[in-house]
Write a structure and sequence with these properties.
The protein has about 950 residues and is an alpha/beta fold. The chain is built from 29 helices and 32 strands.
């Protein structure tokens, strides 16, 4: 609230006549003091007089001073000698138990207020500065109990940011002295820019920082470097003397003419050669010491009043001899002071954590002709919104060059530094040979500066992006120097702590191509640079020149054909059932034909023989012959029931053979290798226990994609240890079979798959994005590059680049190969040939066994023949003996019966007639066997109905068992 009006002179006189005995009174018990001595270290008599007057009036203001409480002033004159000032503080202020000290600023030096702060701060006595604006007083490690009603110089950076936002300037050059205040201005600007301006499009970025030593003699060398920068907005923090030198040299180099914008602080604005068009700041009430004294005293009274309500205030220190005494109430009083927020004579008075004045109000000053200062705006406190607000009258501003037209703030350079990276087919890089002077016509020189060892090597680049860069340079009219990425990476960030003048902040530090662009060491990135949110936060992207996604590359699985691939049409179970069915049907056929009453019947033949019935071996032969579609020459079923079963079996065999033939074509001719993986959602990729290696490139956009996706975190932890430095290494390992799956940009992987038909991409695209040209934030080339790329898409130029560099016609070749039906080769049908070979070998083995067995049988037959001959010979001998005995017996009968000769003769004739003697049979081996069929038949025919002859020669029975 506003301070009360000045009290009458009688009240002032009454307050001065208070007995000095009251000053010696001390509070008793645990109550707070009833009086408070307020010290003042002031610069002149007027300030001292005003200090006493304000305190006298304060005692009658019940809003700040309750009944029973009185304030007294104790003042000393500030001395330019800081040691003397410190001694005076001890002798005349601390010895009188001051509860706080208000300190002014000595016009010829800055050290005396610091001496007061050191001395009082040692005892935790609060010190309120009313004119000290140096950044050092913000350090609470040194000035532990110092706060001030004036803002420090570096707070002007907050107003700078508001002015830049008002005019739309997003790229600046900061020029500051190398002292504490200069560095504090830079730190405040950068921190506030990142903290308070979330919209990157309006956030001011520092293109270049120029730091100079105070007491300049010349600034020309710095100005020459500034001319090469893009920004033409200069923020200057310098003393009055240094600003004079800077303005002088800037005018010599024509850097104060139209197109250049200078925004300066209060000290620089006071230089006597400030150019026309400069915009500066001026603190309201900066030199009005009396108003600041009044605000400081009332703030102190407000804090003491609140503190007495909440707690007891102990006595202040009484001298400087007690080095170990720390006034705890003073420490807490300083905390109450920092929480004040009142409306005073100098505006809204409040403090931050460092004890610095907030809500300080400034006038925006514009230098017109004849070095006249005009107020064109203000930075003031908005009580409704409770925040600071900038208001500028643009029409009243005179810009450098004495014109009313606002400059653009940047100068668009026509020679750009372009970075790229080797990534086939977008960029091919080859090292320039020693005997080569220059690159080929279709190549561009692209040196590589190795940041590891500091060596530079010459390379030649060509490819998709190089042709795009040439077209962009021709279309939007710029020249360029091309170079490869220093560390060979696209760029990823790391979080690091950075300490500034006001605290510690966490920042993202980029490397690779992105790091070069963020550090403004490059203007463009023309490479297969994926557009993603992390990168877009720090750099600009053009519209995509190629749309793509992420996919998986793996080696195409070889055909599954093996030596038994011809068995693939049927499962093992079906093959077993077919084999069993053959033999079961053969057995049933044999049984049906065996037990059928019509199984055997006579055939009308000349020889009159009967055909044999179907035996088991013939039935098996018949079943296999029907199944394998071979001709059946013999051994067919004869019964009707067996023939019905044979017809059914023939139908079954036809179906089985037809099914086998159809499936054989599907398995061997139309077989296409399938990918092992179905895509990113394949369970084997998500399962860390699966023995499947997958990887990507470290720090790439794909790597960032996996970091963002929570559902892929388990997979990312597994593949993180396998990630590669370059895509070339990973692709080669996929070809060699060392890596099962490589996850990368679809454009590159499709190119590799089109070049090598043994490689294949798995699954559908995911993480769809595009490749864009990278530019610096707020680059003037952004719109021009984007419009050119859109035009290239419409004109078909990008499509022609795709055909020339990515596909090469190889995709069509691979597609033609995929569409062409496969022909069966030895690999597919090797098992069949092996089966035939096994049959041949088996047949040869069987014939050998048969030959050996036959030889054995022949030997046995020869032995049997020898036995038969021996038996025949023995039989003949026996027959001869029998015949001889018979003859002798007949002879004896003849001799005994001579008398009955006639009877005997007639009897003999009768015997001969009845039993004629047969001629002896030929004794051949074929007829020697008694069971010979032909012999038995003939014997039957010859002796049918007749008894056997009495003395007929007979053969012996089989005696083969007697032969050893």
């Amino acid at each position: 609230m506003k301070l009360t009006r000045m009290l009458p002179a009688s009240c002032l006189l009454l307050s001065l006549m208070i007995p000095q005995a009251l000053l010696a009174q001390k509070p008793t018990g645990s109550e707070s003091p009833s009086y408070y001595n307020i010290g003042g270290v002031l610069s002149n008599n007027e300030s001292e007089s005003h200090f006493g007057t304000v305190i006298a009036h304060l005692n009658f203001d019940q809003q700040y001073v309750p009944r029973g409480t009185t304030y007294y002033d104790k003042t000393i004159r500030i001395d330019k000698n800081p040691i003397k000032t410190a001694l005076n503080v001890c002798k005349h202020l601390i010895s009188r138990r001051v509860y706080a000290v208000v300190v002014s600023h000595e016009p010829t030096g800055d050290l005396s207020p610091a001496a007061v702060s050191y001395t009082s701060g040692f005892y935790q006595i609060p010190v309120i500065g009313i004119s000290s604006r140096e950044a050092a007083f913000s350090d609470k490690n040194i000035h532990v109990s110092f706060l001030r009603t004036v803002p420090p110089y570096y707070h002007q950076a907050d107003v700078w940011l508001e002015i830049l936002s008002h005019f739309g300037y997003t790229k600046v050059i900061i020029i500051h002295s190398s002292d504490t205040d200069g560095r504090a201005v830079l730190g405040r600007f950068q921190t506030t820019s990142q903290t308070n301006y979330d919209d990157i499009d309006v956030r001011a970025t520092v293109e270049s920082i120029v730091e100079f030593e105070p007491k300049l003699d010349s600034f020309s060398s710095y100005l020459m470097d500034m001319k090469t920068a893009q920004s033409r907005v200069y923020l200057l923090y310098a003393s009055q003397e240094d600003a004079y030198v800077i303005f002088r040299d800037a005018a010599i180099h024509n850097m104060t003419e139209y197109g250049h914008i200078w925004i300066v602080t209060e000290q620089a604005l006071s230089a006597n050669n400030t150019p026309t068009g400069i915009i500066g700041l001026k603190l309201n009430n900066a030199e009005n010491e009396t108003d600041h004294i009044k605000d400081a005293i009332y703030i102190l009274a407000s804090a003491i009043k609140e503190m007495t309500v909440n707690e007891t205030i102990t006595e202040a220190p009484k001298d400087c001899d007690d080095s170990g005494a720390i006034w705890e109430s003073g420490k807490r009083l300083f905390g109450y002071l920092k929480t004040r927020n009142i409306r005073g004579e100098t505006g809204q008075v409040a403090f931050d954590d460092n004890g610095d004045r907030m809500y300080a109000e400034y006038d925006v000053i514009n230098v017109h002709e004849n070095h006249s200062f005009e107020k064109v705006g203000s930075f003031h406190y908005d009580s409704e919104k409770r925040k600071m607000r900038l208001k500028i009258n643009d029409s009243s501003i005179t810009w450098p060059g004495n014109t009313g037209k606002k400059p653009e703030g940047i100068m668009i350079p026509t020679h750009l530094k372009v970075l790229t990276i080797e990534e086939k087919p977008f960029v091919y890089a080859r090292k320039l040979l020693d005997d080569e002077i220059d690159c080929a016509d279709d190549e561009v020189v692209c040196p590589h500066f190795n940041i590891t060892n500091g060596n530079e090597q010459e390379y030649c680049c060509k490819g998709y992006c190089i042709d795009l860069l040439k077209a962009l340079a021709q279309r939007i009219n710029f020249t360029y120097d091309l170079a490869l990425s220093p560390d060979g990476q696209f760029g990823h960030y790391q979080l690091k702590n950075h300490t500034t003048g006001i605290g510690t902040t966490v920042k993202k530090e980029w490397n690779g191509l992105i790091g070069e662009l963020v550090a403004e060491r490059a203007d463009l990135i023309v490479a297969p640079l994926t557009i993603n949110p992390e990168r877009a936060e720090f750099i600009e992207f053009s519209k995509p020149f190629k749309y793509q996604g992420i996919t998986i590359l793996e080696k195409k699985p070889s055909r599954s054909s093996t030596l038994v691939s011809f068995l693939q049409p049927f499962s093992n179970t079906l093959w077993i059932l077919v084999m069993v069915s053959v033999h079961v049907v053969a057995l049933v056929l044999y049984l049906l034909d065996r037990f059928s009453p019509f199984g055997r019947f006579k055939l009308s033949s000349n020889d009159g023989t009967e055909e044999d019935a179907l035996n088991l071996s013939s039935a098996i032969w018949f079943a296999w012959g029907v199944l394998l579609n071979s001709g059946i020459g013999e051994g067919t079923p004869r019964s009707f029931s067996a023939r019905v079963l044979g017809m059914v079996w023939a139908g079954f065999a036809m179906i089985i053979v037809a099914s086998y033939t159809a499936n054989l074509a599907a398995f061997l001719v139309l077989e296409r290798p399938k990918t092992k993986l179905t895509g990113i959602n394949d369970a084997r990729l998500r399962n860390t226990m699966e023995n499947l290696t997958c990887a990507t490139v470290k720090g790439s956009s794909v790597d960032m994609y996996f970091r963002r996706q929570v559902e892929l975190s388990n997979m990312y932890r597994t593949m993180e240890a396998n990630n590669y430095d370059t895509a070339e290494q990973a692709i080669q390992d996929v070809k060699d079979g060392k890596l099962m799956a490589f996850i990368w940009d679809s454009s590159r992987l499709e190119y590799e798959a089109s070049k090598d038909c043994e490689l294949v991409t798995a699954g559908e695209l995911f993480g769809r994005s595009g490749y864009g040209v990278g530019l610096q934030k707020a680059s003037p080339w952004t719109d021009a590059v984007t419009l050119a790329i859109l035009d290239f898409h419409e004109s078909g130029f990008m499509e022609s680049l795709d055909k020339e560099w990515i596909f090469h016609g190889n995709v069509q070749q691979c597609e033609q190969f995929e569409k062409t039906p496969n022909t069966l080769g030895l690999k597919n049908m090797a098992g069949v040939f092996i089966l035939v070979g096994a049959g041949i070998v088996g047949g040869i083995g069987l014939i050998i066994i048969e030959v050996v067995y036959k030889k054995h049988q022949i030997k046995k037959q020869k032995k049997m023949e020898i036995a038969r001959h021996a038996a025949d010979k023995w039989r003949g001998t026996i027959e001869k003996r029998k015949t001889l005995r018979a003859s002798l017996a007949m002879q004896r009968q003849y001799n005994v019966g001579l008398n009955s000769v006639s009877k005997s003769v007639s009897s003999q004739n009768a015997e001969k007639t009845r039993y004629p003697i047969l001629p002896p049979l030929p004794r051949t081996p074929e007829r020697a066997w008694p069971k010979d069929k032909e012999y038995i038949v003939n014997r039957k025919n010859n002796s049918a109905g007749k008894p056997p002859p009495r003395y007929m020669p007979t053969y012996a029975t089989d005696v083969s068992h007697l032969i050893v």
